[in-house]
Design a protein that fits this description.
By secondary structure, the protein is mostly helical. The chain has helices at about 1-10, 35-40, 70-115, 115-125, 130-140, 145-160, 165-180, 185-200, 210-225, 225-235, 240-255.
Amino acid sequence: EEEEEKEEEQEPEGRSPALGAKDGGTPPVELDQSPEKAQGWQSGDADRDVAPPGAESAVERGEEAPALKPVKKLETELRKKLCQLWLDYLIKTMFEDLQCRRDLVAELRESEESTPLDVVVSETLLKGPDWLRRGELARRLNMRKEAGLSFEISARLFEKTSRSAGISAHLEMLSLAVDQADVAGALRAADRSIETLHLQMPNVKVVQFLSPIKQALFGLVSKAGLREVRERLASSELPSASKIQEVLLDAVNWHVHGYSD
């Protein structure tokens, strides 16, 4: 009995009596294990960014995962480069537009003072598409007079090479006249557009510019009223007056705003 008491006194503190392997038992278990160690987490896992069991993850703490930081940095750099390219393009475009506006104003002002429009058409170094772009720029800048002159020059330059190619300039003049509620100018532009359009019809299967003409004439009816448009059309003696009258009848059938005025 004294020997058994001595063996019990020699047992290490914090350990429970364990059975040996020969008794069919399991290895002794330390009682002072922390919950992390009990679930298999080792101290070396901290170096591999492995959180201990029960601890909050980086996402739960509101922090970015370490693996996402390089991706976020790359996205930020790409955004900066994209913004820089966009700003460079914007500044370059604005500079070119202002330069084009300066040249346009100087050239048209000189032609108004001393040179007829026909001389400008014959002496200009630019072509029809160039003057068309000038007119579009002047219209965006609310320079309506310069826009109308530019479209007129563009149409005349197109007529030198191919009259049917000038329909874009005529449509721009039609749209500009409708915006200004200029009934006479809109009817003249519509007449020229229709005449130019019929030059293309023998060579094309689908008339693609008919809808813009009808839409512009409907807008003219909405702004000026059907009665005034019809009176101006009757006194204009335009070659395409009958075709324009058909569009005005469509405006009545479709009850376009202003058809009853």
